[in-house]
Amino acid sequence: MTDGIAVQIGLIAGVADRLRTTLETLLPQADVIIRPADAPFPRLLVADMDSTMISVECIDELADYAGIKPQIAAITERAMQGELDFAAALRERVACLAGLDEAVIEQCLAERVRPMPGAETLIRTLGARGTRCVLVSGGFTRFTDPVAAMIGFQRALANVLEIEGGRLTGQVIEPIVDSATKRVTLEAEAAALGATMADCIAVGDGANDIPMIAAAGLGIAYHGHAKAVAAADAAIRAGDHTSLLYALGVPRAEWVSGLSG
Length: 261
Hints:
By secondary structure, this protein is an alpha/beta fold. The protein has 11 helices and 9 strands. Strand 4 (132-140), helix 7 (141-151) and strand 5 form a beta-alpha-beta unit. Helix 3 runs antiparallel to helix 4 (86-95). The longest helix is centred in the last third of the chain and has 15 residues, at 179-193.
């Protein structure tokens, strides 16, 4: 694994896109992020959670405890590829979890949920420099809230699982946090800061992240699916989240280490 390549030069968008494609072809083991030389340091970062800030898809892992991971994971993959309506696919998968003991959520958190390499360093370093970091997920609050605290996000937004009598009912409490919600969250958070889209970064891996990736001044596909990569300004393909710190020009000596190592 190599460190990221950060290119900060004055290029018009079309030339920048062609340069990125050329460098990625020539250097398949490097991450290439091209930014204008006068690009502002980000005031806001909005990120997806599952397979972006953590290494698993939480709904697939819950399904594993229920003994139905293969069929649920297949639906998840199709949704992330943009082949299915996200909200409908979410409702379908959650319905399959009806009756699952609520205690499995804490077990899953303890046994399987881990930050992606470099995630804590990225978020805590940006936070130390005054960047507001928001986690917005099509997953569930029972995971996003502890993950946000673990990694260093200032806010988390996700779907709420309906639980009655200590068991999942198979329902998600409306409204669904979907791709539109992610973009609206990005725009609302930026407005609250008095920031423009040029001041914002969005990071995600799947089709439901595309609206926020496309809207942000710098949209990053993190080990993303093909449609997300095509929509992004840059793709982290080979390295970890610290590739973005290189691109932002943050000296390594000023990185804030993740609390879990």
